[in-house]
From TrEMBL:
Superkingdom of the source species: Bacteria
Keyword terms, alphabetized: Membrane, Transmembrane, Transmembrane helix
Name of the molecule in the record: Glycosyltransferase RgtA/B/C/D-like domain-containing protein
Membrane-crossing segments per the record: 25-48, 60-80, 164-187, 219-235, 242-262, 268-287, 294-312, 356-377, 389-409, 421-440, 452-470
Region (Disordered): 1-22
Keyword Isomerase: no
Length: 638
């Protein structure tokens, strides 16, 4: 070999070792640098937003969305880019899922904050301490019947030595990542294009529950990810041509169905319905695979029905108010009676641009869904039969999102509507992803008008859906606010709960309002009740001074061995931020004025069968002494 040839060869090796980055690595390096920098900037902006909100400074909403979008939009671009490889796309989706958990992680990194979190945290802690499943929960009466999440968290805490809260964070972050990846894999079962799969994951992340509700310490946060993977396994079973392969995927689907059923009632019901939609679509298109789809639907239905009948017969009565009363209220609105409605963003501190985005997000989703339906119709003959049936089922699922948005106009239906969006949006994500890629493929340049428009729509829908799904007090820290679940843990309430636990022990039955009950039932380790139609404990507070309390209620309290009554005198001074004192269907007027008078809440000082054992600036605790019933009312307070 000549010297010239040798020098040329060494020069090429040197280029590989120290020269410019090879073209194969250019994309991953650029993506890594871009997303690392934007991720750091975004995280810093989120911290700034929370700091400003905590100190009552302006600009919290702007800083928050600047932080979210500075990472979200580049991540979406890299995920659906033509030149992105499989490994890079996977890394982008994992990074995106982790980043979208940051808002909730930064919101409360050390302990429970949301209403449901207090219940699930306490339930997991009780399992860790006592080692007993299916214990009753005083905050949410049915969660003890669905121990999947709590058993998982308690087991991890036992094995690792982590606290219950940190074990829950590990489980929930993993579940959040698997949810995003599961949506991509589900879309990939229908369309082989990995860009469509990535687009579906990004679109699904725009739903109102993704950033906050399905990241909280709650059973849906774990169950909804399992639901997506159960649908993946079901489609694999339907597609299988070999008997053994089909049986294997069906068996795995059944295992996941049982896991979901033992974790969350609503997710199990939605899974059964989704499998039913797939089965109907297969039947309509006359596919032999419809037998498998119907078998899976039957297995899901039997599992859910058996569990609810044998383990949790109370689930039906627990879920009924969210739909039954909502439909009644909505009928009143439709009839023009003017009753039963609610005003969206009433007295909200959210900026107008966020409110406008909330109103604009459903029409954008409707436009995208209609476009996806048109594209599906045009391509239906080119699709394989399973893709045609599966995408039709997802289209029907996505269509359920739009009537559910109307239920947000009713007080009882608002909560049910919000909880349905996380499921119906799965259909929107899967069917609109091919439309997004089709629009991008029409562009001749990397940065096109359609690409910029799609990113703008992505930003608008993410902002609008999040604003519609969560109140600002849930999303941002701030000073204590009466009647806000996330700001209920005031120093006074925590001190009162700690005093009762330390002086009287744990497990005492007590009557309380919604917000006191959260703290006494979690940190205080007591068993509060906040009332219901069959046990109207709020009648104690509503009774006028000098008027007797209903004997039937007193007998219930006595026979069920209730020991204490907690009174928060702020109920006569302020209006709850979320317009609830005790429970959703309480018979208390909500007209912008406090629902109680001071005399209604101080009358307990004069009742002989109540003994005040604790008195603070706003919180008082009384002990029931039912043996003194019938004695004369004392004049003046003790």
């Amino acid at each position: 070999m000549s010297a010239a040839t040798a020098n040329h060869t060494v020069g090429r090796r040197g280029d590989r070792d120290s020269g410019p980055v090879p073209r194969a690595w250019a994309g991953p390096v650029a993506a890594g640098l871009t997303l690392t920098i934007t991720g750091a900037i975004g995280a810093g902006a989120l911290v700034t937003a929370y700091r400003r909100a905590e100190w009552g400074q302006e600009g919290a909403f702007s800083w928050f969305w600047a932080g979210m979008l500075v990472f979200t939009l580049p991540a979406a671009w890299w995920a659906v880019r033509r030149g992105t490889g499989a490994r890079l796309r996977l890394a982008v989706l994992i990074g995106y899922a982790c980043f979208t958990y940051l808002p909730k992680l930064l919101r409360n990194p050390t302990g429970p904050l949301y209403h449901d979190e207090y219940a699930h945290w306490g339930q997991s802690r009780d399992i860790l301490l006592d080692g007993v499943l299916f214990q009753q929960n005083s905050i949410i009466r049915v969660i003890g019947d669905y121990p999947g999440l709590h058993a998982c968290v308690a087991s991890l805490a036992t094995l690792t030595g982590l606290t219950v809260w940190h074990a829950a964070l590990f489980v929930l972050i993993l579940a959040h990542v698997l949810l995003a990846l599961g949506v991509a894999v589900l879309a990939g079962q229908l369309w082989p294009d990995p860009r469509i799969a990535a687009a579906a994951a990004i679109v699904y992340s725009l739903n109102s529950s993704f950033l906050y509700f399905d990241t909280q310490f709650g059973y849906e946060s774990l169950a909804i990810g399992v639901l997506v993977w159960a649908l993946v396994c079901a489609l694999r079973a339907i597609r299988a041509t070999a008997l053994t392969a089909g049986a294997g995927w069906a068996a795995l689907t059944l295992v996941l169905i049982v896991a979901i059923t033992a974790t969350h009632h609503l997710t199990a019901i939605w899974l059964t319905g989704m499998l039913g939609l797939i089965a109907v679509a297969c039947t309509v298109f006359r596919l032999r695979a419809g037998r498998t789809a119907w078998a899976l639907t039957l297995m899901a239905g039997l599992t859910v029905t058996t569990w609810m009948a044998a383990v949790s017969p109370r689930t039906g009565s627990y879920l009924e108010p969210y739909l039954g009363r909502a439909l009644g209220q909505f009928s009143g609105l439709a009839a023009g009676g003017g009753s039963g409605g609610r005003t969206l963003f009433s007295q909200s501190v959210a900026p107008l641009w966020e409110q406008y985005a909330a109103f604009a997000a459903p029409p954008v989703a409707l436009l995208a869904t209609v476009g996806a339906a048109v594209l599906w119709w045009r391509r239906r003959r080119a699709c394989d039969p399973i893709t045609k049936a599966g995408s039709a089922a997802m289209l029907l699922l996505g269509a359920l999102y739009f009537p559910a948005t109307l239920l947000i106009l009713t007080p009882s239906g608002a909560e049910g509507a919000r909880r349905s969006w996380a499921f119906s949006y799965l259909g929107i994500a899967v069917v609109t992803a091919p439309l997004i890629i089709a629009l991008l493929d029409r562009a001749r340049h990397r940065i096109s008008g359609s690409g910029v428009l799609l990113l703008a729509m992505c930003a608008l829908v993410m902002v609008g859906n999040t604003a519609a799904g969560m109140n600002p007090s849930y999303r941002f820290p701030g000073p204590p606010v009466f009647g806000a679940d996330t700001r209920a843990a005031t120093p006074e309430l925590l001190a009162a709960a700690a005093w009762l636990r330390e002086t009287q022990g744990r497990g005492a039955r007590l009557v309380a309002d919604r917000y006191s009950g959260l703290i006494f039932g979690s940190y205080g380790e007591q068993e509060p009740t906040t009332g219901s139609e069959s046990f109207p404990t709020y009648d104690l507070y509503l009774a006028q001074p000098g008027r007797p309390v209903a004997p039937a209620l007193i007998e219930q309290l006595r026979s069920w061995r209730f020991e204490y009554l907690v009174v928060d005198r702020r109920m006569a001074e302020q209006v709850p931020e979320i317009r609830i004192y005790f429970e959703t269907n309480e018979p208390i007027p909500h007209n912008g004025r406090p629902g109680f008078t001071p005399s209604q809440l101080t009358k307990f000082d004069t009742l002989p069968w109540l003994i005040k054992v604790y008195d603070g600036p706003h919180i008082a605790i009384y002990r029931f002494d039912f043996d003194r019933l019938g004695q004369r009312i004392r004049l003046g307070a003790r």
